[in-house]
Amino acid sequence: MSRLPSVAAPLDAEERRGKPAVVCYPVETLPVADMDLMERARGTLEKVDEVIVPPRDARSFRVPQGHFFRIVSIEGAQVGDLNLWNADDLSERFFSGKTRALHATHVTTGDRLWSTLPYLRPMATITHDTLGWYGWDRDGSGVHDVIGTRCDPYTNRLLSGGDYHHCCHSNLTRALAAEKHLSVTEAEPHIHDVLNVFMCTGFTQDTHQYFMKASPVRPGDFIEFFAEIDLLGALSACPGGDCSATHSSDAAACYPLKVEILRADPQILDGWAPPSRNAYPRTHR
Ligand SMILES: [Zn+2]
User: Domains in the chain: how many in total?
Assistant: First the structure.
C-alpha cells in the first residue's frame, strides 16, 4: 500500500473501517485429521530412513503414504525451506497460499499442508511440533510460516545487484533435478512457495512488512508430519541460518538439518485411506 496517501478520507471512513472481521474460511467444515489415530500410530514409530541436508544446500526424500517424517534440528539453530510433491505427479504440489488461507500464517500440530488446484487435498498433516509452545510473541510473530516464498537469486539480483547460487530456490532446484534426472532449467518451474520450517516471522505493526527474527529452534527440536499421499519432498537448509540477520549470502552461521522417515505399525492404520483428490468436476460452468 502506498505510504503517500493523496486521497482525502470520506466522512464515513471510520464507520467503514469499523465493520466486523469475518474469518474467510469456516474451519467447522474443513476436513480434519483423526488425531487420536495419529497419536496411536505415533506410539509405534520405527525409523526406516534418514537424509542429512548439508548447510546452504538441499536434498530430496520420499515418504510413502501412511508413513511419517520428521525435520530435525541438529548441531545448531537452522531454518529449512520445504517443498512437497505428489511422488507420482509433479503437477500436484504444496499450495502455501491456500494452506495459509485455510489455517493461519504459521502452522503447527493438527494443521494440514494442502495441495494445489485442481487436487486440493491434504498432502501431509502435522502430528507433532516441539516448538508448539512458542505461539505468538509480542511482535506478533510465530514459527513455521506459510507467508514467505523462499530466498531466490532473482530477488537478490534485484535488490543487491549480485549473484548468489545457494539461495533456497536454487538449492531446491538442484535437489529436484538430481532426484528426477532433469536439467536445472527443467526442474526450476516445479519449485514452489515453501513451508518455512523453524523460521520465526511476522508483519511489522506500523507498515505490515514481512520480518524475520532469530529462530527459537534448538538441536533436538523437530516438526513431524503424517504423509497423506505418496510424497516426494525437498528440503533446503537456508543460507540465512537461524535467519536472525541476513540471507542470500555466506555471512550467516549455517547448520545441517536431518529428515527422518518413520513407519507406524500398519495394523493401527488399518482402515485409514489416503484422501481423494477434490471432487469438483472442473466444468467451471
Ligand atoms: Zn532460504
Answer: 1
Reduce the DSSP state of residue 13 to 3 states and report it. Answer: helix
Sole residue written with cell 520428521: 70
In a domain, 271, yes or no: no
> What's this model's pTM, rounded to 2 decimal places?
0.95
Cβ < 5 A residues, ion ligand 1:
151, 168, 238
Residues 11-38: what's their mean pLDDT?
93
CA of 38 to the centre of ligand 1 (A): 31
Other C-beta atoms lying within 10 Å of the C-beta of residue 194: 27
114 part of a folded domain? yes
pLDDT, tens only, 93-130: 999 999 999 999 999 999 999 999 999 999 999 999 99
> How far is the centre of ligand 1, averaged over its atoms, from the C-alpha of 29 (Å)?
34
Asked if the structure places residue 239 within a domain, the reply is: yes
Residue 87 lies in a domain: yes
Q: What is the spatial distance between Cα 154 and Cα 174, in angstroms, rounded to a whole number? A: 16
C-alpha 280 to ligand 1 mean position (Å): 35
What is the distance in A from the centroid of ligand 1 to the CA of 167? 5
Which structural domain, as residue segments, surrounds residue 151? 49-224+231-258
